[in-house]
Amino acid sequence: MAIFNFDDSQAIGTVFSVDTATVIIKVQELEKLRKLHVNQLVAIRSAKAGQHLIGLINRITRKASDEENPVESDLGLSGFLFTENILKVNLIGTLLDRHGLKENVFKRNLDTVPEIEAQCFPIDGENITKFMTTISSHENYKVPLTVGKYSIDEQAQAFLDGDKLFQRHAVIVGSTGSGKSWCVAKLIEQIAQLPMANCILFDIHGEYSGKDFKMDGLQHLRVANPSDLGKTGNLENDVLMLPYWLLTYEEMLAMLLDRSDSNAPNQAMLFSKTVFAEKMKYLDEIGDTTFKSSITIDSPIPYKIDNILKELAELDLQMVEGARTEKQGPFFGKLTRFVQRLEAKTQDKRLGFLFQISDDELDINWLNKLCERLMLGTSSNPKKAGVKVIDFSEVPSDVLPLVIGLVARLVFTVQQWTVRENQHPIALLCDEAHLYIPERTNQDAAAELGLKSFERIAKEGRKYGVSLTVISQRPAEVNRTVLSQCNNFIALRLSNAEDQAVIKRLLPDNLSGLTDVLPILDIGEALVVGDASLLPTRIIIDEPIIKPESATVKFWKEWSADTSKQDIATAVSGLRKQSKS
Ligand SMILES: Nc1ncnc2c1ncn2[C@@H]1O[C@H](COP(=O)(O)OP(=O)(O)O)[C@@H](O)[C@H]1O
Ligand SMILES: [Mg+2]
């Protein structure tokens, strides 16, 4: 049975003009106009029998009556004569009474456009429930995934198409405390239940690494801190070392080279020469015959950083035979600053996960182990990758973009070099993305390179089954190139006008009016728009079972308590050790 059986008397008005997906409805009776509100759903009778076009009211204007003074400010509606009561409606899809064997099917496309004078009906009362039930029928979604319920009808579960959500990348934004992390948790807990899920969540503040964020199918990894250094079996204990030899030449230089130094070109040249020679030496030592002919300076081949340091230090002090006496070598004194920087970096305990690696991590096969740990399961269940939360909270913020970029790049390149039939799709969830996928990098070369990895994934990831979900409280500070590749938006409350404007620009023209609700959304309520959702509308996000450690501190409540748990001694000791454990 068709869900809509409108009677002519229920019509609120008729189509006055049509412009692609925007329709102007003329409303005769002021009484009817009064009952309508912006963002309400309406149905317009289609020229084809058994079809209704569904739209969202975008603007309501009342005609200026003769008795009243003419409207002075025209609300930006210049050119419009206020001679009619007018509704502006954005069409969002078509409801078919019958589609093949199925009844009541809602489709996102507009097969037909409404005819002039076609009748328009409000979708309210029980029609809302009927319509929302149709929308939330499982059959509309190949792989149902839900984040919550529709705000307009709290009985109706809002499903998302799990394929489309990840195929075309997603964005989750909202001011701090609006409910992003809970929304991520809600997604994660469903992903983790899939038997062959494969997803990595970059956890910047350790929010998802707490004791409550645990379930089957969810694993926790963390980047090594100073107290993990020098230990063996770190990887087996879910502690990640990310050795310097995985970095490209550019990435190493970004960290080591001071480009304002007049000797920078010499330093870069000699560094590249020695690194390449050391990589070749390593391959000789292990008797390699496969890689030697094809490696480049960027190839992930282990080499000993100590040897580089020694060699460069020697060149810096080198004396050569002169005509009469010894004279200074060609690079004498030109490498001093570079050697100092390199030495400082290699000894910096905070960067120990990069530089202070053990023999385990100097093995050529260690890269396989690392990638297996990142992209496959555990030894007990190797095929089930599941969801991995990687805790980056102890990584110094200045190298964070470089380090996360490295992990993302590893995943992407491994996927790229996997034959298509064997590519198992993987999603990267990037919390606090403005920190490492920034719009402006302020000339910071290392951050720039980290960003490049994400730009590539945003642009090409889809082809290789790598998906990005960008999560941020400051969309205005997140890289536009990356954001513009995202086709799904879960926008929670956004109070900053600049951030709202960014989201508005990213939405299709006919839906950008929806962003008006961004500042007035409730906590945990989101505007969900995109390929993955049938209806662009507000959704009240369900409370997740597993909860992130809330970053929302209750000042007044804590101050009203009898005691305080502040422990300075542990904090100071942690500060010295650069580790929370
Ligand atoms: N869907 C929701 N339903 C109810 N309360 C929520 C919801 N989402 C968030 N909250 C509340 O808001 C707080 C902050 O949410 P959180 O996800 O940490 O925000 P954000 O990550 O955006 O800063 C949570 O601790 C919780 O109390
Ligand atoms: Mg958060």
From TrEMBL:
SUPFAM superfamilies the UniProt entry points to: P-loop containing nucleoside triphosphate hydrolases (SSF52540)
CDD domains: TrwB_TraG_TraD_VirD4
Ranges for domain Helicase HerA central: 147-409
Keyword flag ATP-binding: yes
Keyword 4Fe-4S: no
Keyword tags: ATP-binding, Nucleotide-binding
GO molecular function: ATP binding
Name of this protein: ATP-binding protein
